[in-house]
Amino acid sequence: MLIGELSRRTGIHTHQLRYYEAQGLLEPGRGVNGYREYTDDAVRTVAQIRKLLEAGLSTQEIQFLQPCVTGAAPDLEPCPELLDTLRARLRGLDEQIDTLVRSRQVLHDYLDVTERRMSRPAPEPAPEFS
Length: 130
Prior knowledge:
The chain is mainly alpha-helical and 130 residues long. Helix content is 60%, strand content 6%. The protein has helices at residues 3-10, 14-22, 41-54, 59-65, 80-119, and strands spanning 29-30, 36-37, 69-70, 75-76. It is elongated and about 100 Å long. The model has no long low-confidence stretch (mean pLDDT 90).
């Protein structure tokens, strides 16, 4: 099938499919006319890529993990590189979450202090002596 058909069957724009190809995630053949030609398996591969991207994996991580990926869900076969990569990605996400939680608390603190200052009555002007 040509790239337009793969796009229609997967709901993914052709420029995104070309990006997946440039990242080494899709490997179409080439027809005699030079057009990309995809097998029916490409539909499943695109579904796998989309699900793994939803999990927060980068395209480099997905390329590394592709030998461990089967099924459309996708199903992940237990292989050493899979577990190491998923654990590393999870650690990175946990660190990002911790940073966001700290930033959120600091912003809350700034808001609280500022709102309290706004609710204080204005100080009385000092009396003038002549």
